[in-house]
Amino acid sequence: MKTALVTGGVSGIGRSTAEALRDNGYRVIVADLNEPASPMDEIQFIQADLANTDACQHLINTVNEQHNGIDILVNNAGFQHVCPLEDFPLETWQTMQSVMLTAPFLLTRGVWPAMKAKGWGRIINIASIHGLVASLFKSSYITAKHGLIGFTKASALEGGEFGITANAICPGYVRTPLVERQIADQSRLLNLPEDRVIADVLLKNAAVKRLLTPEDIAAMVIYLCSPAADCVTGSSWSIDQGWTAQ
Ligand code: NAD
Fold it and tell me: What letter does residue 152 receive in the DSSP assignment?
């Protein structure tokens, strides 16, 4: 049985991904800052603050000791902070880079030797459309996600000869707690009902006017883990309601 580690796996995209991997026959471990709000059957939970490099290293040591290496790593943990760059707090900037860029590097480095030894591995980085294009007031997030796509390409080149693939998924807006908070904030700021915020603000650049579901993203992770994707590597997979088509 192959083992998957999903970061940020108690909520939103991470939780759906962890559950889909479990339902597809993988052993699943989730690492998250927060405990799950409801039970996650047959999924192992490890508390970890991925902003902290020692905690990342400790997580890797724990999973490598408990399991015969990790076969699938889904770097998903992340958060948003919306603020004009001239007021952007340095500490928040650094935490965002730590969680969304340095942690994926440390975890990839940590799972690499076992993947290499087995001649098989899947690294899946949950980036964003904001890894491909920018929007206002999200400078640190956009920087980290663009960097994550670069790291995905670098990992793909180094992993090729060892059967390790690395891909990024670039979702548009997905209905998760992260986006629920943005909808509520914008609704207050703009004095608009939430359905207008979704249609006119969040999905302004989208061809398909509906929010994605976490299950939409989980299905792409399952595809990238399947034999059909053995030769798919170094790619950024947009699933973005047509946002980046223009
Ligand atoms: P979410 O808030 O529902 O889940 C994020 C998870 O990451 C939470 O469980 C949180 O506890 C965890 N996390 C945050 N900081 C952490 C830390 N320091 N250490 C460990 N865990 C930490 O958000 P989501 O929407 O499911 O987002 C998941 C990923 O998808 C993120 O990387 C996000 O940038 C990306 N993404 C989301 C959307 C969207 O529209 N929701 C779009 C594109 C990309």
Answer: H
